[in-house]
Amino acid sequence: MSANSISYKKPLLETPFHEKTREKCYAHDWYRWAGYKAVNQYTSAELEYTSMRNTAGVIDISPMHKYSVKGKDAKKFINKLITRDITNIQPHQVVYGIWCNEDGFVIDDGTVFCFDENNYRICSGERNLNWFEDTAIGYDVKIEDVSHSIAALAFQGPLSCKILHMLNANNIEKLKPFYFDQFTINDQKITISRTGFSGDLGYELWCDPSQAHDVWDALFSFNKDYKILAAGLNALDMVRVEAGFIVVNADLIAAEHALRPNRMRTPFELGLAWMVNLDKEYFNGKKALIKQKNRGVEKKLVGLDVQGDKPAVGSVLYSKSKKEIGIVTAAMWSPSLKSNIAIGYVDKENMKLGTKILAEIYHPEELEYRKIWANCKVVKKQFFINERRNAVPAFI
Amino acid sequence: MSKFDAVIIGGGHNGLVCASYLSKKGYKTVVLEKNEKLGGLANYGSSLNGMSSKVLQELQIDLPQLTNKSYVVALDDEQQHTIIHNDGSKTSFHATNASIENQKKFIALIDKYKLYSSTLSTLMHDTPPRLKSGNSSDTWKLITMGWKVRKLGKKNMREFLRVLGLNIADELEDNLDDKNLMGLIAHEAVLGSNLGPRSPGSVLTLLYKQAIQGGLFSSEKYDFHQLIPSLEKNCLEQGVEIKNNTSVKKIITAHNKATGVLLESGDTIEGSIIISNADPKTTYFKLLGTEPLDTDFIRRAKNFRAKGNVAKFTITLDEKPIIKNIDKDMMNARFVYAPSINYIEKAFNASKYNKYEKNLCFEFQHCENTIVANVNYVPYVQNTSYDKEQLTQQCIDLLQPFIANLNITKAEFSSPNDMADKYNVSGGQWNHGEFEIDQMLMMRPFYGSAQYSTPIENLYLCGAGTHPNGSITGINGRNAAKKIIGDKK
User: Fold this and answer.
1) Domain C-terminal end among B168, B185, B213
2) Residue B417 forms part of a structural domain
3) From the CA of A255, how many Å to the nearest CA of chain B?
4) Is-contact A217 A165, C-beta < 8 A?
5) B251 and B188 both lie in a single domain
6) Residues A170, A68: contact at Cβ < 8 Å?
7) Under CATH, what is the fold of the domain A2-62+150-243?
8) CA A298, CA A292: separation in Å to the nearest integer?
9) Can you give the pLDDT of all 396 residues of chain A as single tens digits?
10) Which strands sit side by side in the sheet containing A188-193, from one edge to the other?
11) Are A282 and B298 an interchain contact pair (Cβ–Cβ within 8 Å)?
12) Is some CB atom of chain A closer than 8 A to the CB atom of B290?
């Protein structure tokens, strides 16, 4: 880590898996993630995507921000921070949460890991230390940024459990979704949680940076038969759209980043009403969210089943009467579903499931574009649903 | 356990005024004061006295008016003091060694400020309007405010808007060239705020102070020592219950509503409305606790600037003080020592770094054998205590050249830290919060807490941290009471 900490000498930091990922990254296609060098694609995004849907894909998620939250009031603090109620959270449980500002606008989302009553970890996409510390004023809690001291891999796909099982991770198949525990693989004691971003069976592996290489090698040790692949951001983005997961600063602008006041979004507008517990005595944004619940939303993020096979990337959405009603935030041709899918905002007249709308697609074709008026149907965001995801014991 | 309609935390002048108004409207009211003596910081504020005559009139308090002429003396190192006289409407020189030209310019400047401050005073007795509320009365208030500015006339309006954001040093250097006179006005502009003469916005501070107090050099209209006892008497007549030596530990809330207070003694007092006369930071962080508050709100509360800079120095002599070169009949004057802009700025500069200069500014008045001085700048410094002995000696050395018979029998120095401890006021700030353009009017104390209300239902503020600000006017208490009565209709 010492070379890494001198950031002016090495403008982009290298994750604990860097030697391994570099080896596999034929495309040399890197991007910047929280100051780290991370892989966009190793060879081809489609191939990596296919591994995640058919065998398993390994994604280096070490740059993710991780905050340790410890102290007598840790649970109280998190309950104030996020919109869900974690009063009944158990040790070894993981809760997906979002947090809002006073106007009920989403700042970020993340996962809360409960180690015990007074010890938690929050993993998030954006930097949140300042927000957490200001939220913690008046609480007996210590918040620490532990991002750099934990190496993490996402291991997603139908064979993920099987491979961990073959690596002698004891009883890994019995681990329930949104739970985590300690396992030993390749002589390394690590933490594995049954969480992930693919909408399929999958795990996230958390270990000390010193264990990183051993863990990585272990996952690939059966590759003669199973052909798992290292996957980059592009492939991850494909699976997450299929699963209907939102990404902060892609599907919504984080409240702390937005420059224009009407660009921020509330959980209700994101279709995350199930994550807001208005019965809780207090949490950030409660008042504003109660107001919005009573008033109803003006726009909503929905799934779209798009006609044809040309992805509606960045498309403007129109009602049947060609009135502008919203915009697409993510779109792709889904190889698994064999359909053209998208996620986007529509106004309140058009957010009911089954509503027919239009997308104006500008499809580039060798320096010219073809304009397509594609019929779309409003559907649920979860396009890819597989019972493997929640099955216990898991598929081995 | 006892139950009241209104529980007021803190028996300062605003708490008492608020209690009296509410009680008049039939609210069963109790005032809880931490200390033995009522009045809080008002006991310190003899020179900030600008008790609103409107409040006194509405509460039917007959405070004896001081008939004797009021003087302000700008002390001079060579003992050639400038004496300014104010007869309520006109300011004139009684004695000075400034040139005739400078005297004229000085009077013209004062008149100009008087005009501008009357423009600012439009909203003093009102709850400041909310922006974008869509409420017609708010819009009307904003229009009134704009109209008042427009009514100055084209030339004056332009000048008014020009000087509003300036620093007082630039403004004075443009208009005068007498060090002593410049020092005097600059001192008025910065005393009690955390500004130096060269800090932007110090002209506005001066105008605003003038608007509140009703004049720059019209000191004490009322006998200050009678103020708190009369307010107390008035409260008792209205049926207000006053509990001294009763310290509040927590404001009790349930479901975002204030329901009562928990005392240090362990008792609880229930109240339909809780009104805090404490400063905003103390109210939110100590009395209420951050739990029911949004993070954005906590950030604003945290960033509310409230650094005290003025120390109080009280000395008792063995006889009435004699000021060198000053006639006996002018001894009721307010004496100011701020010999030049740079002298003040230098003292301020040290305070920025939480230190104090050897050469400080001060102003004092005396009552019988006792001299009470405000010493500027002695900054509030967290977790540090001052070397009192050294500071006491330093203050004596500062006073020495001007007082002929400085035979001290008792000396007491209280730093902003001491005031913070004694009166539970954040940063030992006189005004409960610095007094600057972004912490004024509808932005006082800060967004989400202005207009006397708080994010917690039934919890109100009535202290100096609210509009129209510090100084001893009683308007905060009055406006808060009006707001509460209006809300509960």
Assistant:
1) B213
2) no
3) 12
4) no
5) no
6) no
7) Gyrase A; domain 2 (3.30.1360)
8) 10
9) 455 566 666 688 999 999 999 999 999 999 999 999 999 999 999 999 999 999 999 999 999 999 999 999 999 999 999 999 999 999 999 999 999 999 999 999 999 999 999 999 999 999 999 999 999 999 999 999 999 999 999 999 999 999 999 999 999 999 999 999 999 998 999 999 999 999 999 999 999 999 999 999 999 999 999 999 999 999 999 999 999 999 999 999 999 999 998 999 999 999 999 999 999 999 999 999 999 999 999 999 999 999 999 999 999 999 999 999 999 999 999 999 999 999 999 999 999 999 999 999 999 999 999 999 999 999 999 999 999 999 999 988
10) A180-185, A188-193, A202-207, A151-156, A57-60, A229-230
11) no
12) yes
The alpha carbon of residue B142 is apart from the nearest alpha carbon of chain A, in Å, by 24
Q: Does B286 touch chain A (CB under 8 A)?
A: no
Q: Shortest Cα distance from A80 to chain B (angstroms)?
A: 8
Q: Which residues from chain B sit within 8 angstroms of residue A285, using beta carbons?
A: 294
One domain for residues B208 and B109: yes
List CB contacts (< 8 A) between A83 and chain B: none
**Structural domain boundaries, residue B476:** 2-63+222-303+434-487
Please report, for chain A, the start and end positions of each structural domain, with discontinuous segments joined by +: 2-62+150-243, 299-381
Q: How many Å apart are CA A353 and CA A277, to the nearest integer?
A: 24
List CB contacts (< 8 A) between A131 and chain B: 295
Nearest-CB residue to B296 (from A80, A101, A282): A101
B195 and B227 together in one domain:
no
Q: How many CB pairs under 8 A join A and B?
A: 38
For residues B141 and B188, membership in a common domain is answered with: yes
Are B448 and A134 within 8 A, CB to CB?
no
| Third-level CATH fold of A299-381 | Elongation Factor Tu (Ef-tu); domain 3 (2.40.30)
Residues B142 and B187 in one domain: yes
Closest CA to B462 of B484, B440, B437: B484
Q: What is the ipTM of this complex?
A: 0.91
**B365 φ, ψ to 5°?**
-135, 165
Residue A64 and residue A128: Cα distance in Å, rounded? 11
B226 with B299, same domain: the answer is yes
Give the domain CATH number at B265.
Answer: 3.50.50.60
Q: Select from A131, A281, A287 the Cβ nearest to the Cβ of B295.
A: A131
Q: Looking at the partner chain, which of B255, B302, B455 has a beta carbon nearest the beta carbon of A137?
A: B302
Residue with tokens 């989403």: A106
Domain check: are B16 and B57 in the same one? Answer: yes
User: Between chains, do A287 and B256 touch, taking CB under 8 Å as contact?
Assistant: yes
Q: Give A322→chain B minimum CA distance, Å.
A: 33
Is B441 contained in some domain? yes
Nearest residue to A67 via CA among A112, A12, A104: A112
Q: Both B110 and B177 in a single domain?
A: yes
* B258: chain A residues, CB-CB within 8 Å: none
Residues B397-434: b if buried by 16+ CB within 10 A, e if exposed: ebbeebbeebeeeebebbbbbbbbebbbbbbbbbbbbb
Which residues in chain B are closer than 8 Å to A282, comparing Cβ atoms?
256, 291-292
Cα Rg, chain B, nearest whole Å: 22
Is B358 part of a structural domain of the chain? Answer: no
- Whether chain A has a CB inside 8 Å of the CB on B27: the answer is no
Q: Which of B256, B298, B455 is opposite residue A137, by nearest beta carbon?
A: B298
Total number of domains constituting chain B: 2
> Where a domain ends, among B180, B213, B246?
B213
- Estimate to the nearest angstrom the gap between the alpha carbon of B473 and the chain centroid: 8
Tokens of B334: 């307010």
Q: Note whether residue B251 is domain-resident.
A: yes
Shortest distance between the Cα of B289 and any Cα of chain A, in A, equals: 7
The three-state secondary structure class of B5 is: strand
Judged by CB atoms closer than 8 Å, whether chains meet at B289 and A138 is answered as yes
